[in-house]
Write a structure and sequence with these properties.
Blueprint: H1 2-22, E1 26-31, H2 34-46, E2 51-52, E3 65-66, E4 70-75, H3 80-83, E5 89-92, H4 94-102, E6 112-113, H5 116-119, E7 124-129, H6 136-145, H7 148-157, E8 163-164, H8 179-182, E9 186-191, H9 193-208, E10 213-218, H10 225-231, E11 236-241, H11 242-252, E12 256-264, E13 268-271
Length: 282
C-alpha cells in the first residue's frame, strides 16, 4: 500500500515536472507597436496563456506580462511571419498572413483568434487630411469603399480572415456629390498590399465609371502612409485601425482624420515551431 502511494506521488511529481517543462522557454512573438502589442497580449490573456498586471488596459506591453516559462518577443508587425519559424508562436494581424500566403510562404490556420468585441473596434479606416474631410472627392471615395461591390468582394475572397463592417452598403455612389465636377481628377491613396490594395482595386473600378482615377500607391511597411497624407503626397490612406491612427496623431500632432471604416482583421495566434497549443498546456 505504501509503495502504491509512493508510486502515485512520484507519478504526480513527474506530471507536474512535465507540465513545467512544456512551458519552459516558450517564445511568443507579438507586434512591437503600442496598439497592436496590447491587442496581441489581450488575446493571450483572454485565453489563459498569460496574465496582465492590473490596470494594463489598452496600452499593455511585455512589461505588464505575468507568465512562467513564456518569453514575449516584440517584433515589427510586418516581420512576424518571417520570424515565425524561429518562434514557438506569434500573434499576427491577418493582413500580414494574407501577404504571406500570396507570397507562397507556408503558414497554418490560426490556433486562436480574437472575439468579436475585440476586433470590431479595431476596424480599418480610410483617412484623409483634416481639411479634406467634407470634400466631394472624399465623399466619392467613401461611397465607393462602402459599396455592396466591395462588401461582396471581401466576403467572397478572404474566407473570414477579413470581415466587412459595412451594415448599409451603397450602390457605389453618393447622391449628393457632383460627379461631373470631379471628372478627370486623380486621387492618390497610400495602402498596404493585402487586403487593402486589393480591395481598392474594386473601389478604383467604381470611381472609374465617373471618370475619377484612383492611383493606388502600395507601401510594404506601415510608417509612411500617415506622413504621406500629412505632407499632401497622398490624398488618403487605407492601412490602419483607429487606435493606430489615434497614436500617430497623439505622437506627431498630425492632421490625419478617419472618414469611414471598411473592414476588420481579427488577430490570430499562429504556430511556428509548435503545431498546436500543447506547449502552452492547452
Amino acid at each position: 500500500m505504501k509503495l502504491t502511494k509512493i508510486f502515485a506521488g512520484l507519478l504526480v511529481a513527474l506530471l507536474l515536472l512535465s507540465s513545467v517543462a512544456a512551458l519552459a522557454d516558450v517564445t511568443i512573438g507579438v507586434p512591437d507597436d503600442t496598439t497592436n502589442e496590447a491587442r496581441a497580449l489581450r488575446l493571450l490573456a483572454d485565453n489563459g496563456i498569460i496574465e496582465l498586471n492590473e490596470g494594463a488596459g489598452e496600452l499593455a506591453t511585455k512589461a505588464d506580462v505575468v507568465a512562467e516559462g513564456i518569453e514575449i518577443v516584440e517584433v515589427q508587425a510586418d516581420q512576424l511571419v518571417n520570424q515565425l519559424a524561429d518562434l514557438d508562436y506569434a500573434v499576427i494581424n491577418s493582413n500580414f498572413v494574407l501577404d504571406a500566403l500570396d507570397a507562397g510562404l507556408p503558414i497554418d490556420t490560426a490556433l486562436l483568434t480574437e472575439v468579436e468585441e475585440v476586433y470590431l473596434p479595431n476596424a480599418n479606416v480610410i483617412a484623409v487630411k483634416g481639411t479634406n474631410v467634407d470634400a466631394d472627392l472624399t465623399k466619392a471615395l467613401v461611397a465607393a469603399a462602402r459599396s455592396q461591390q466591395v462588401k461582396d468582394y471581401i466576403e467572397s475572397t478572404y474566407a473570414g480572415a477579413v470581415l466587412s463592417v459595412v451594415d448599409e452598403p451603397t450602390d457605389g455612389y453618393d447622391p449628393d456629390v457632383d460627379y461631373d465636377a470631379l471628372a478627370g481628377q486623380t486621387l492618390i491613396i497610400a495602402a498596404t498590399p493585402a487586403p487593402h490594395a486589393q480591395i481598392l482595386e474594386i473601389v478604383k473600378g467604381i470611381l472609374a465609371e465617373k471618370d475619377i482615377n484612383l492611383d493606388i500607391q502600395v507601401f510594404t511597411g506601415y510608417t509612411e502612409e500617415n506622413p504621406a497624407v500629412d505632407a499632401g503626397d497622398a490624398y488618403a490612406n487605407y492601412f490602419q485601425h483607429q487606435p493606430y491612427l489615434d497614436s500617430y496623431v497623439e505622437e506627431t500632432g498630425g492632421d490625419v482624420v478617419s472618414v469611414t471604416t471598411v473592414h476588420t482583421e481579427p488577430m490570430g495566434l499562429y504556430g511556428g515551431k509548435q503545431a498546436d497549443l500543447s506547449a502552452l498546456g492547452k
